[in-house]
Amino acid sequence: MIIGVPKEIKNNENRVALTPAGVTELRKHGHTVYVQAEAGKGSGFSDEQYTQAGASILPTIEEVYGIAEMIIKVKEPIESEYPLIKENQLLFTYFHFASSEPLTHAMIERKAVCLAYETVEKTDRSLPLLVPMSEVAGRMAIQEGAKYLEKPMGGFGILLGGVAGVKPANVLVLGGGIVGTQSAKMAAGLGANVTIMDISLARLRYLEDIMPANVDTVMSNEYNIRELIQGANLIIGGVLIPGAKAPSLITRDMLKLMKPGTVMVDVAIDQGGCFETSKATTHEDPIYEVDGVVHYCVANMPGAVPYTSTLALTNATLPYALQLANQGWKQACSTNEELRKGLNVVHGKVVFKGVAEAWHLPYTDVKELF
Ligand SMILES: NC(=O)C1=CN([C@@H]2O[C@H](COP(=O)(O)OP(=O)(O)OC[C@H]3O[C@@H](n4cnc5c(N)ncnc54)[C@H](O)[C@@H]3O)[C@@H](O)[C@H]2O)C=CC1
Ligand SMILES: CC(=O)C(=O)O
Ligand SMILES: [Mg+2]
């Protein structure tokens, strides 16, 4: 198969979807790999390393999209990429369709095969291609939160761990999945008072068991959220309903209950965000304020730590990319249910329920494709 790796063009997106090691693997299986010039630069991989691994370098993004049967990338295509996508072309990347109606319509129009990293799902319901980036973003959320809690950055001016004789900060984590767990661990390690909320009692039981003593667990419901946000200094949004729009757990009216200078990091922004007042921001301009509350809503947080993120992401994606290249998407998805769950928009049809529901579009059962 002919595989293309474009350079990411989203703001401060420094990850790349394939490392030179991945090129070597694909070449070993007889595939041809084209990498856009400087695609790996932000992650520390030179064009020369890709060439030595057996890839050919193409100078422009147009040439990469023009030649490839499968495009492997990191972030969803942005507007300037839409016209480059060809009918039947396989796109293997994050899409987060439920947070972007224009992207959904564009991919329907292009009649491409859109296989989304974030909805590939194992039989135990885990999301193998989301987990590594959620680990990164969960950990980063505390770093970023701590930074914006500093007074000169617009925050309340509290140190997460406090010092002798002064109480630590209160960190509230909504969603106790991968993001939530990593955030809680980092915040607890810094000495903060942490509360994790989730709707799954089983998950709360597990977290209660493994977390240190400065982490509490509380059932997530509106009543409890209203109460806990009043004492919180830093709030992390890490809820997910896979492939669907995130629920708005903190509504605009609730901001008035919070202390001025409270910081909210909405990691779930890639699925539309779990705070009503969230809107996607960039690494260049990451925060804004509503009713005295600082919002951080960067949709590609791991892009800022590309060394860690590229390696963590490609460790997880490469085995699936190999299957797709070896068998073609149709064969690979018909035999492998994990990959089949990644199909979102195929040949103009929406085959993922959460996406069809988000934009009131007709839904086609994925099985009709085979
Ligand atoms: N902004 C960014 O750069 C990045 C964003 N993400 C996003 O972070 C979000 C979370 O991802 P993961 O932690 O991997 O998901 P996950 O599936 O591991 O965890 C989500 C948790 O939310 C819980 N939940 C669902 N509804 C809830 C509610 N009403 N109240 C409280 N908890 C609720 C679930 O029970 C589950 O435990 C996703 O939207 C993901 O795409 C992930 C990586 C990077
Ligand atoms: C998951 C995601 O959206 C990211 O890593 O950018
Ligand atoms: Mg405890």
Annotation keywords:
370 residues, alpha/beta, Rossmann fold, eight-stranded mixed β-sheet, seven-stranded mixed β-sheet, 11 helices, 16% strand, binds 1,4-dihydronicotinamide adenine dinucleotide, binds pyruvic acid, binds magnesium ion
Structure commentary:
The structure is a single chain. The chain is an alpha/beta fold. It has two domains: 183 residues, NAD(P)-binding Rossmann-like Domain (Rossmann fold), CATH 3.40.50.720; 174 residues, 3-Layer(aba) Sandwich (Rossmann fold). 33% of the residues lie in helices and 16% in strands. It has an eight-stranded mixed β-sheet with strand order 3-2-1-4-5-6-14-15, with helices on both faces. Strand 14 and strand 15 form a beta hairpin. Helix 1 packs parallel to helix 2. The protein is globular, with a radius of gyration of 21 Å. The two termini are 20 Å apart. Magnesium ion (MG) binds next to strand 9. InterPro entries: Ala_DH (IPR008141), Ala_DH/PNT_CS2 (IPR008143), AlaDH/PNT_CS1 (IPR008142), AlaDH/PNT_N (IPR007886), AlaDH/PNT_NAD(H)-bd (IPR007698), NAD(P)-bd_dom_sf (IPR036291). It comes from Dyadobacter jiangsuensis. Keywords: NAD, Nucleotide-binding, Oxidoreductase.
